[in-house]
């Protein structure tokens, strides 16, 4: 842990760093590939919508010795529709059958009790109408659109429109990947999934805003100096907050991983699977997008400005004049403001210097001291 802290301090001071912005086209290509895979998975497999969105019946059985595959067969035979069966705890089952009405649900419940060899009173049935599912879906879309709109407005006011655009692209990237993973894995989409999606957007924005805030502070009066380009300062902002972002993401992922792999996988809690998968994938995608997409995209947009283009020319010209191949290693921070007087001063002399001796110094005295 001490080594990680030392690494974070060195990254913050600019002593070491990784060229995230310089290799941005690699990250763009990787993100596009992942996004296309998610979209293809969504197009081919589609989403496994829960009964809250499609309507249907859910039958809960607290204790039975029948396997999941056998219970699925019984439910499909009793209802005439496809059924989804999940384990609940050690011996329980959750059977979901879509698009059936109340009369059909009663018949299915009675037939299941006979096939499973249990009293019908041990089967708990719940019926959800498709109209209620439509309302849930519409409210979810409305909430997502309003959230996106407010985020863009806030970031445009607090920072600038380029950062708002970059954050919006990162959010769309995170949502697309999370939804694509749901399609590929086949997990059921429930209201818990929607809650998880809206939650991860907040986490994703948190990491992005931390980097943007550092970038905003470090680029004050950027055109008054000729040591760094905007892209280089953006890269230093990422490196300076890198360890913080990693620590925050890991701490958030650990309890979510417990919900997903232990609560959902071992204990078989279906609702935990729905919300924990969206949280787990979204948190990881959000940390990735804040580092590899949002800030490099801001740098791309800013470098198109005439002022930034002129600054880049001045920086490269000064380095060529000084015979430098790389940017300076010092970091820009509030404690180290831009100062053109320091930049234009004569370079420090490296190595021993030959100073002329004073004409009368030490004349006639072996010690060389004056009286």
Automatic annotation (TrEMBL):
Gene Ontology BP terms: intracellular protein transmembrane transport; protein targeting; protein transport by the Sec complex
Keyword field: Cell membrane, Membrane, Protein transport, Translocation, Transmembrane, Transmembrane helix, Transport
Compositional bias ranges of the Basic residues kind: 360-371
Molecular function, one GO term: protein-transporting ATPase activity
Presence of keyword Metal-binding: no
Primary residence: membrane
Residue ranges of the TM segments: 25-44, 140-157, 164-187, 193-215, 246-269, 275-299
Record-linked InterPro entries: SecD/SecF_arch_bac, SecD/SecF_bac, SecD/SecF_CS, SecD_SecF_C, SecD_SecF_C_bact, SecF_bac
Domain of life: Bacteria
UniProt cross-references to Pfam families, sorted A to Z: Sec_GG (PF07549), SecD_SecF_C (PF02355)
Occurrences of domain Protein export membrane protein SecD/SecF C-terminal (ranges): 121-303
Membrane topology recorded in Swiss-Prot or TrEMBL: Multi-pass membrane protein
Compartments where found: Cell membrane
Ranges of Acidic residues composition bias in the record: 336-345
Stretches the record annotates as Disordered: 318-371
Reported function: Part of the Sec protein translocase complex. Interacts with the SecYEG preprotein conducting channel. SecDF uses the proton motive force (PMF) to complete protein translocation after the ATP-dependent function of SecA.
Family under the similarity heading: Belongs to the SecD/SecF family. SecF subfamily.
Classification via PANTHER family: PROTEIN TRANSLOCASE SUBUNIT SECF (PTHR30081:SF8), PROTEIN-EXPORT MEMBRANE PROTEIN SEC (PTHR30081)
Self-association and partners: Forms a complex with SecD. Part of the essential Sec protein translocation apparatus which comprises SecA, SecYEG and auxiliary proteins SecDF. Other proteins may also be involved.
Protein known as: Protein-export membrane protein SecF
Organism from which the protein derives: Streptomyces lacrimifluminis
Gene from which this protein is expressed: secF
């Amino acid at each position: 842990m001490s080594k990680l802290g030392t690494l974070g301090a060195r990254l913050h001071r600019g002593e070491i760093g990784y060229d995230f912005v310089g290799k941005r086209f690699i990250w763009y290509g990787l993100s596009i590939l992942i996004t296309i895979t998610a979209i293809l998975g969504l197009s081919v497999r589609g989403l496994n919508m829960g009964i809250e969105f499609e309507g249907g019946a859910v039958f809960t059985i607290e204790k039975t010795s029948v396997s999941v595959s056998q219970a699925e067969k019984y439910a499909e035979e009793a209802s005439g529709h496809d059924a989804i069966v999940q384990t609940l705890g050690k011996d329980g089952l959750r059977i979901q059958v879509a698009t059936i009405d109340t009369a059909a649900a009663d018949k299915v419940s009675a037939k299941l009790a006979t096939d499973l060899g249990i009293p019908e009173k041990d089967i708990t049935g719940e019926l959800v109408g498709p109209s209620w599912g439509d309302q849930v879906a519409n409210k979810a879309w409305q909430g997502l659109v309003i959230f996106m709109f407010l985020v863009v407005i806030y970031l445009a006011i607090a920072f600038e429109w380029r950062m708002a655009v970059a954050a919006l692209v990162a959010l769309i990237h995170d949502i697309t990947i999370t939804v694509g993973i749901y399609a590929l894995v086949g997990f059921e989409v429930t209201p818990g999934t929607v809650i998880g999606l809206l939650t991860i957007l907040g986490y994703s924005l948190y990491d992005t805003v931390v980097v943007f805030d550092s970038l905003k502070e470090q680029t004050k009066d950027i055109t008054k100096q000729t040591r760094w380009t905007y892209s280089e300062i953006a890269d230093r902002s990422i490196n300076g907050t890198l360890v913080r972002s990693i620590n925050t993401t890991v701490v958030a992922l650990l309890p979510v991983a417990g919900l997903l792999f232990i609560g959902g996988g071992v204990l078989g809690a279906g609702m935990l699977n729905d919300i924990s998968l969206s949280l787990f994938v979204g948190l990881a995608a959000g940390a990735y997008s804040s580092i590899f997409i949002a800030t490099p995209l801001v740098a791309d947009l800013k470098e198109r400005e005439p002022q930034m283009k002129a600054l880049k020319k001045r920086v490269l010209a000064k380095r060529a004049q000084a015979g430098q191949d790389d940017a300076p290693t010092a970091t820009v921070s509030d404690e180290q403001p831009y100062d053109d007087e320091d930049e234009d001063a004569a370079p420090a002399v490296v190595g021993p210097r030959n100073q002329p001796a004073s004409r009368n110094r030490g004349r006639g005295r072996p010690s060389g001291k004056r009286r």
